[in-house]
Amino acid sequence: MSSTTRSNKRRKTEERRPRLRLLPQVVDELAANHPDQTWISIPKTNDPTSGFNDITYQQLKNAVNTATTWLKGSLPADPDITLPYLGPTDTRYIILTVAAIKLGHNLFLISPRNDDQTQLQLLEAADCKRILCASADADYAGSLISQSDLALQPHSLLVVPDEAILLRAPPSEISYRHSFEDLRHHTALTIHTSGSSGPIPKIVRLTHGYLAHEDTLAYFPPPIPLTYALFQKVRCFHGVPLYHAGGVLFGLLKGLFQRTVWVLPPAGAQLTPELIDACLRHGQCDALQTVPTLLESMVAESCYHETLSDLKWLWFGGGPLSESAGDKLLTINISAVHGFGSTEIALLPLLSVSPASWQCHHFHESAGVRFEPAQEPDGLHELVIVKRLAGDSPFQPCFELTTASDSVRTGDLWSRHPQDPGL
To answer: Which residues have CB under 8 Å from 44's CB, separation 6+?
Structure first.
């Protein structure tokens, strides 16, 4: 091989190598390169039929920097503070996440659906010294503080600025000069599991390396996974809470790294088929991402079928969809995708399957998925993630959280497709 050929081959390899970025860097780049493009869309009122306001990347940057300034003036100079946040499902979950990172802290997304005892256990386990909350949740947050040792801390309760104030913030600049490699293994964001992993939810500290793996999806070897291809240049209804792991994986990461335009429901509203239908129509959505229970309810009512049939695709996950509902769904819209992921392993990259196999999953080989026979019940297999390369683990964010092992056992049991061993 000539030196010129080797040089060209090395250059092409370097061009295809992901440039892993930190979230504040992504926000600044989006505002610099696409200031007037839509980042996210929010309802004008609690009634989605009143229409939606599109929020730009420049508005996001302004809001992040304003929130960063507010946080800096409200917190002690201590490093690496875990900041639990309680509030309605609005853009502040994303804005405060990035603002906390800019100050070297991490936001802790705790579900308001937890009972008080669970909340107190989570706050203690995460060594929280104060609570951030929206004004609407101040009484609830105050009651938690009164039941905990947080009451002994000065300024334990910090009420964050209203969403409208942040989104109308004037331009400002706050430099962020950290490198990805310096912060790769530092906590960027803290969340917790749903509680299925034990008597109380498990705290999971997501590192900058875990989050930045969303940057690698464009560099997967062919075929390109659906977890990347579907989310490009699409306006999609966001059907899970932003404090949930799905809110991080979709609303935060795909909204920034993949520039998916998420259409949010009214903050604090209970999701119903009727509300989702109104958001899809009046939010001018191309696609839908939601949980199976709500999708089943929409499939069961013919009044929602026209809206579903007009979508480019539908994504559901977080639980099973009944066979009868799934079969009926495919008669309404054949582009329905059954996703799979969890807090620890993120969204596993998927490849397409035939409509007849919609209940099955075909994982991209770069995910490192392996199915090992379970001891019981007979015929089932446990999904195991195996590290594909020594050292760095491209395309496998779970190994950013578990550096001491070359495999991650999920505990999830699967059965093979009767005809296709690849599913």
So the answer is: 50, 51, 52, 53
Here the tokens at position 265 are: 């429901």
The two tokens of residue 185 are: 């293994």
What are the structure tokens assigned to 284, written together?
């001018």
Yes or no: say if 341 and 328 are a contact pair by the CB < 8 Å rule.
no
Please count the CA atoms within 13 angstroms of the CA of 213 that sit on its side-chain side: 25
Higher pLDDT, 414 or 129: 129
- The secondary element (H helix, E strand) that includes residue 373 is strand 369-373
Peptide bond into 223 cis (omega under 30): yes
Domain check: are 305 and 193 in the same one?
no
Residue 369 has what DSSP assignment? E
Q: How far is CA 298 from CA 47, 302, 315, 355, 360, in A?
A: 19, 8, 14, 19, 22
Name the residue range of residue 226's domain.
221-414
Q: What letter represents residue 26's amino acid?
A: V
Rounded to the nearest 10 degrees, the angle between the axes of helix 23-33 and helix 92-102 is: 110
For residues 227 and 151, state if they share a domain.
no
Question: What are the tens digits of pLDDT across the range 154-184?
Answer: 789 999 999 999 999 999 999 999 999 999 9
* Farthest-apart Cα atoms in the chain, separation: 73
pLDDT tens sequence across 107-142:
999 999 999 999 999 999 999 999 999 999 999 999
Q: Contact 144/115 with Cβ under 8 angstroms? A: no
